[in-house]
From TrEMBL:
It is a peripheral membrane protein. This is Daunorubicin resistance protein DrrA family ABC transporter ATP-binding protein. Transmembrane segments: none annotated. GO terms for molecular function: ATP binding. InterPro entries: AAA+_ATPase, ABC_transporter-like_ATP-bd, ABC_transporter-like_CS, ABC_transporter_ATP-binding, DrrA, P-loop_NTPase. Gene3D superfamilies: P-loop containing nucleotide triphosphate hydrolases. It is found in: Cell membrane. The keyword Ribosomal protein does not apply. Residues 18-248 form the ABC transporter domain. It comes from the Bacteria.
Length: 332
């Protein structure tokens, strides 16, 4: 989908929900963002990855008008960030990295407070609140003080509060950090539902599987710049590391395979061999043909393609921060 977006003529492209050029931000003499460009089509999920302190939250804060950039331009929901911050604010919702939930009042009261902030009538506020509490599975807890909620419940309440204003663009700063696997999957489902309703989601995450699962496009922020940007598949192609793994139960078969194949890494303990491969049908066939002709039978054959973890370490590893597109073998 994203590649077709790229090849679609300009006038047929979905309008950009977020577009930014040359965003810069420093704190004192520490440059956090050193010229960031973004182009996020409406109705898509964009994931910003990066190590701690890379500037993910800073980017979210700039795009959601909470802080000003030192340089560069951005349009959010079609409005210029600097010229029309109020219009931007009216179109977006932000769930910060740290909870905005007031623990002393109930979940329901937190929601009603948000409805007030959005100038909904009492009646409309109650209707929206009831709908969202239901949708986020918080009906039973609605009348309890939010400080009694578990981390996952608080996070759900946080996001429910963000949705009160019916935003078209949502910024979620680490929406699933600290959630158990079940709550994470629930959150993913909620995000998918939002997107299928046409909402654009800008999320930051530490979890690469989350970006892989949800995002149409992913950008890796490192050293103040976008080190790489693309679909999960495109990013995975940037790093080496694809291989076919053969496992043997018969030590003799393992040994004869090791002798016959020179370009392999063997693990004598596990009786397994790793053959570098892009995992394509053609390469697999040649490996199988070779095994047949050598009369070697492996007990198990598995194909490994690089995952986003490989990409992340290659792009943000302290080894070669200045050469993001040429990760060294040692990174793996
Ligand atoms: N108000 C501030 N004053 C000074 N430095 C700041 C301020 N806010 C952020 N920074 C610095 O800017 C850098 C980027 O911070 P930011 O919170 O954007 O990182 P992040 O990518 O969100 O990290 P994390 O994964 O830990 O949430 C950090 O070095 C941080 O210390
Ligand atoms: Mg952060």
């Amino acid at each position: 989908m994203p590649s077709s977006v790229m090849s679609t003529p300009n006038d047929l492209r979905p309008p950009a929900a977020v577009s930014a050029t040359g965003l810069r931000k420093s704190y004192g003499d520490r440059t956090v963002l050193d010229g960031i460009d973004l182009d996020i089509p409406a109705g898509s999920v964009f994931a910003l990855l990066g190590p701690n302190g890379a500037g993910k939250t800073t980017t979210v804060k700039i795009l959601s008008t909470l802080i000003a950039a030192d340089g560069g331009q951005a349009r959010v929901a079609g409005h210029d960030l600097a010229a029309s911050p109020d219009r931007v604010r009216a179109a977006i919702g932000v769930t910060g990295q740290f909870s905005a939930v007031d623990g002393l009042i109930t979940g329901e009261e937190n929601m009603l407070l948000m409805a007030d902030l959005h100038h909904l009538s009492r009646r409309e506020g109650r209707r929206v609140t009831a709908g969202l509490l239901e949708r986020f599975d918080l009906v039973d807890a609605a009348k309890k003080p939010a400080q009694s909620y578990s981390g996952g419940m608080k996070r759900r309440l946080d996001i429910a509060m963000t949705l009160v204003g019916n935003p078209r663009i949502i910024f979620l700063d680490e929406p699933t950090t600290g959630l158990d696997p079940r709550s994470r999957h629930n959150m993913w489902q909620i995000i998918r539902e939002l997107v299928s309703g046409g909402v654009t989601v800008f999320l930051t995450t530490q979890y690469l599987d989350e970006a892989d699962e949800l995002a149409d496009r992913i950008a890796v922020l490192n050293g103040g710049r976008i080190a790489a940007e693309g679909t999960a598949e495109e990013l995975k192609r940037l790093v080496p590391g694809g291989h076919v793994r053969l496992r043997f139960s018969d030590p003799a078969a393992y040994r004869s395979a090791t002798v016959a194949l020179r370009e392999v890494t063997g693990d004598d303990e596990a009786l397994s061999l790793q053959i570098p491969s892009d995992g394509s049908q053609r390469e697999l066939r040649s490996i199988l043909d070779w095994l047949d002709s050598a009369g070697i039978e492996a007990d198990e054959l598995t194909v490994h393609t690089p995952d986003l973890d490989d990409v992340f370490f290659a792009l943000t590893g302290s080894h070669r921060p200045n050469q993001p597109n040429q990760p060294e073998e040692a990174v793996r």
